[in-house]
Amino acid sequence: MHRLQIQIRRQAWSEMIGHCLEAMPREACGLLFGCLSAAGIPAAEHYVPVANAAKNPLHSFELHPQELVRALYAASGKQELVGIVHSHPRAAPYPSDQDLATLWHTTPSHWIVSLRNPSLPEVNAFAFRKRQRENFSLEAISYEIVME
Ligand SMILES: [Zn+2]
């Protein structure tokens, strides 16, 4: 097991999963805001649901542009964007080719909530690591759910 790389508050965790369940059978998406600790570990404190503007929301997601801007504006100066969340209603919690094509490389974490078994959501977090030049790789990161 690799070392801990992000924390998420229980409340944000519950809201993230609740939103993904509500959106079924469509993919849900949202943002996690929080702060970077002194040790450089991001802490996700709040979940903000964002509408899925994809043409085919059963199989993909696209953060609704206006809601995205509104959420980023509301957090600016207070909290940082520490994660982007989306769900896989039927697939495993691993990135699709389309997920890998994201432009949000610098966001510290990318969360995938799989609801293939809705009573037992599976959640994985990933982060892009820059390789040579413009090559990025996506790696699984470990997380911890915290009360505070
Ligand atoms: Zn996906």
TrEMBL record:
PANTHER family assigned to the protein according to its UniProt record, in alphabetical order: CYSO-CYSTEINE PEPTIDASE
GO BP field: proteolysis
Protein name as it appears in the record: Proteasome lid subunit RPN8/RPN11, contains Jab1/MPN metalloenzyme (JAMM) motif
Pfam annotation, one family: Prok-JAB
Organism: Paenibacillus tianmuensis
Domain JAB per the UniProt entry, residue ranges: 11-119
InterPro entries reported in the protein's UniProt record: JAB_dom_prok, VirAsm_ModProt
Key words of the record: Hydrolase, Metal-binding, Metalloprotease, Protease, Proteasome, Zinc
GO molecular function: metalloexopeptidase activity; zinc ion binding
GO cellular component: a single term: proteasome complex
